[in-house]
Amino acid sequence: MTKSTWAIDPTHSEIGFKVKHMMFTNVSGKFDQFDALIENEDDAFETSKIDFTAQVNSVNTGNADRDNHLRSADFFDVDNFATLTFKSTGVQKLNEGAFQITGDLTIKDVTKSITLETEYSGQMKDPWGNTKIGLSVNGKINRKDFGLTWNAALETGGVLVGEDIKLVAEIQFVKQ
Question: SMART domains, from UniProt (predicted)?
Answer without folding.
Answer: YceI
